[in-house]
Amino acid sequence: MSELINAREERGADISRGGPYYGELIEQVRGLMDRARLVSPTDELALDAIGILKQLNDKLDAAVVNEWSTPTWTRFDLPARGNITLPPFMIDHADSSGVDARLTFRNYHLGGNNAAHGGQVAVGFDDLLGMAAAMHAGSITRTASLTVDYRSVTPLNTELKVRAWAERQEGRKVFVRATLHDGDRLCAEAHGLFIVLKPGQA
Ligand SMILES: CCCCCCCCCCCCCCCC(=O)SCCNC(=O)CCNC(=O)[C@H](O)C(C)(C)COP(=O)(O)OP(=O)(O)OC[C@H]1O[C@@H](n2cnc3c(N)ncnc32)[C@H](O)[C@@H]1OP(=O)(O)O
Hints:
- By secondary structure, the protein is an alpha+beta fold.
- It is built from four helices and eight strands.
- The site of Palmitoyl-CoA has 20 residues, from helix 1, helix 4, strand 5 and strand 8.
């Protein structure tokens, strides 16, 4: 984790971006998303919520910045860097040999039958494989190919373990693998190809 923060700080990353309440703000938004996934509101509740959310969105509009200025590039101290589009994970260890993380799919990530949506599992793998590739290559990479094998059901609201690592690098090509476990049980595994971007590559 500290190696990850150091690697980012060397590139000017600032873990105070967004301020001391940013993590709790994102947690409240995640709580909203969890409820929105399962709520079946009365008309009165729906109208009430719409009014509150409209007001809130108007307030937040005043603080919207471009993608490179958001805290989600730099907040390695927060679950999933505070990025609400990712399932929340905490990094336990990250260096050139690989990334170990604890990840929890929540109600928002429901596919069906109390299990995580397969696409959400792929989202988690994509980010953590990208991190493993970047730590290995010492440079930001982009997903060229990602394959996920779903081995058993992935539960919600359970802390799961992810291990992601680079198997080898050939020039700009970083070949990566990852596993997702619930205790000893393998839920899913992935392999992918990430490409180191050329300077200035769009
Ligand atoms: C720094 C330290 C701290 C870091 C701490 C950072 C932490 C922060 C973590 C954030 C983690 C975010 C992780 C999410 C990452 C996304 O989700 S990225 C978004 C999804 N991906 C995309 O949109 C990619 C779209 N595709 C492209 O942009 C381009 O096709 C690519 C992937 C950049 C490659 O294009 P290119 O640069 O022109 O390279 P190209 O010459 O085509 O290919 C290079 C080589 O790869 C091969 N290749 C390319 N694509 C494929 C393929 N699909 N299958 C097989 N081979 C392929 C080519 O054949 C070629 O092989 P060689 O001829 O060299 O042997």
